[in-house]
Amino acid sequence: MHSVLRIWQNLQKFGRGLLNLALPPRCLRCDDDLSHEAVISLCLKCTQAIAPEIAACCDRCGAILPEGVIPAECCPACKDFSLKFDAVYPLGHYEGALRELVLKTKRLSSEAVSLTVGRLLAERLGEKLAKFRADAVLPIPMHWAKRFFRGVNSPELLAGCLAKKLGIPVVRTLVRCRYTGPQKNLLPRERFRNVRGAFRLRRSDQKRWQDSRLLLVDDILTTGATCSEVARLLKQAGAAAIAVAVVARADGS
Ligand SMILES: [Zn+2]
Ligand SMILES: [Zn+2]
Q1: Class assignment of domain 55-249?
Q2: Which ligand lies nearest to the CA atom of residue 47 in the structure?
């Protein structure tokens, strides 16, 4: 059954590839024509609407700061939480056109949207992330049931785009061993409790991360509870530094 599904998915991909060769590429958001050389399937106007330049972020949690506020070691959004990662790099704030696009990546068969978001993330954050000097990119794993029903694993596609840009490997060392339910209905403190113990490392990788610098990738970061739990696990396994690249930084309330 699994191999039949795989063949069908490959046939669909092949068909889409042929169509892309025949038709001029179009903007994924407004359907405007794009040049054949366009790396990202978005026109300039939509790119600006989706990811306007960010003035400044909190160094620790990636919260987007109002113009004129100087970034500091922490901010009102993260001062009450013990976060185990070292830095967060967001593409933008979870609102407006970026929110629309992120929600599209959560729909069935949204591979093309996720890849577009991933390429935009890599283009915008590539230079900053290169300075972090990560050894590997690790997508935050989805629970198998969620992955099955959605058909697309957005963090994994995002990780692939960043890894290509940075010239480092994607490593699938993390396993989500417990379904945690949607975090959005929980209070900030409950989110940290909810994800405690929800991940593990593959047995063969237990000693692999000594002194490593790792880049986690996810689509939305709100309180940072999920990424912090994964960072805790990796630091316990010896990782030296952990950064998080995220498409959208949402307000945690
Ligand atoms: Zn457009
Ligand atoms: Zn902060």
Answers
A1: alpha beta
A2: 1
The pLDDT, as a whole number, for residue 2 is 57
| Strand spans (E) along the chain | 56-57, 64-65, 87-93, 136-139, 174-176, 199-201, 213-221, 241-249
Q: For the chain, what are the domain ranges?
A: 55-249
Q: How far is the CA of 47 from the centre of ligand 2 (A)?
A: 26
pTM score, whole prediction? 0.86
Question: What ligand is nearest to the CA atom of residue 85?
Answer: 2
Q: In the prediction, which pLDDT does 95 show?
A: 94
Segments of the chain scoring below 50 in pLDDT: none
Q: How far does residue 40's CA lie from ligand 1's centre (Å)?
A: 11
* 3-class secondary-structure state, position 98: helix
User: Ligand 2 centre from 83 Cα, in Å?
Assistant: 10
Name the residue with tokens 């709100």: 222
228 CA distance to ligand 1 centroid (A)? 35
Name the closest ligand to CA 62.
2
Find the angle CA(97)-CA(143)-CA(199) to the nearest 5 degrees: 110
Q: How far is the CA of 19 from the centre of ligand 1 (A)?
A: 20
Pairing of strands 174-176, 199-201: antiparallel
Q: Which tokens go with 241?
A: 């530094």
End-to-end C-alpha distance for the chain, whole angstroms: 43
